[in-house]
Every structure is written in C-alpha cells, then in structure tokens.
Amino acid sequence: MDVDTPPNFSRLPEPFIGALRELARTRRLLVAVDFDGTLAPEVDRPDQARALPEAKAAVLRLGDMPNTRVALVSGRSLKSLIEVSDLPDSVLLVGSHGIELRLDNPDDGIPLDADETKRVGVLGEVLGEVADSFDQVWLEQKPAGFALHTRLATERNSRIAHLVARSETAAELDDLTVRSGKNVLEFSVRSTTKGEALEHLRKYTSATAVFYAGDDVTDEDAFAALGPDDVGLKSGDGATLANFRVPGPIDVARGLNLLADFREGDVHEQ
To answer: Distance between CA atoms of 249 and 244, rounded to whole angstroms?
Structure first.
C-alpha cells in the first residue's frame, strides 16, 4: 500500500469513527441498513439497483461474526429486495416498510385478511388509472398496496400525479397509509413504519445496540427509534434525526467496513 495514500476510513467524520469503535464493543450487535441510496446508488430502474461491492463485502463480513446480525430494512417488496440484494438467508430482510419479513423462520409475517385484500384491489384500480394518465409514471405492486413511481416523469407531471393520486385514493378508501419518498408515493392498506420494524428486529435479535443507516424520509422513523447506545447514519442530504451523516453509499460502505474492522478486533472480548 502507498504510505502516502490515506486509508478510506480517514474520509469519515472523526466523531463517527469514535462512535463506531464504541458500538463495536457491544455484546449483541444489530446492523440494519436501507438498500436504495444507502448500500446501492440510486438508479432510474429499480430492478437494476445493486449494492456497491464494498458495501456487500462489509455486510457479509459483519454477518459472519459471532453475536452480530445484519438486516436490510427497505420499502421495496420482499421479492424485489431478495432479487437486488442477492444475500444469504442469514441476512434478515424487511420489505414494504415492515409488512413483509424474512427472518429465520419462513412462517414469520402476517398475511393480509380478506378485507385488506379487497381494499388492495380497489387501490390498484384507482392508482392504475392515475399512472396511465401520465407519461413515465408507473405502478409497482406490493403485498399491502402500491408505489407510484415518478422518477422518469417531468417535474410537472410528477407533482400533478402525486396530487391526483392522493385525491382519488382518499375519495375511494379510508385509513390508507401514504408515504412520500424520493420520486415515489406509496399507498398501503396496512400501517407499519421502518421504526416499528427496527424495534421488532431489536427484540428478535436481542440486540444490546443497533447501527442503522438510511437515506430517505421513511428512514427517519427508524432513526427516531434509536436509543442512546445506538448509532444512526444518514446517507446524503436532507433533514435528519440521525446523529451522523455521510455524502452517499460509498461512505456508508466505508463505515460498515470500519465497523467490521473494530468488531473483528474486539470479538475476543464478547
């Protein structure tokens, strides 16, 4: 290695490095991360998203360590998350903001009841008409609802499509959960948040401390669920409750690899 080249972790904020060093000493660690914009750079076609090699390597390293569990917490459907993440079954997966789970038991998760299934059908009809009315606006089906994607639409069409979708769905269905993300508006007949999902994972893994990284508005629910012994990392711009921030996925990957380095060094103490 060129001694004049600074190590990757030197690009990270010093207080963040110190927090990772302390976090690595916890007895049972949960590392939970969002996928898009956090492990993977944002792309125009969601099916083409892939984690940075450095990020995937860090996830695999951490997942192989004793007393350490890794989870992806995403707004994607579980099927989509499995396809784009390409990770072993030992990595816990949360899809659709907590509605779908892939934990150690394949029977984990709560299926929709008959009324919820009927409401999803109505929701699909309404949002399908909205998507068909605008160029480059498309609908992604999820187990308990739909995501209206407008990344490729003009700013005007995106804004109008969101307004029309909110109005039309409210006229047809009560008690919908609506979430705004980056160039996407999500509608669900069941209310869950990434914060609730993170709390479930904390209990499920008996974690004594949690690391959470995310980039979107919906990740703020997870940051809000963190405690004083936990570490939250915001990827990118925007207001946040996270106590640390980095510019994007490459720095998230550096942070995860540094956490793995620290954890590996302290593993004999656990």
So the answer is: 14
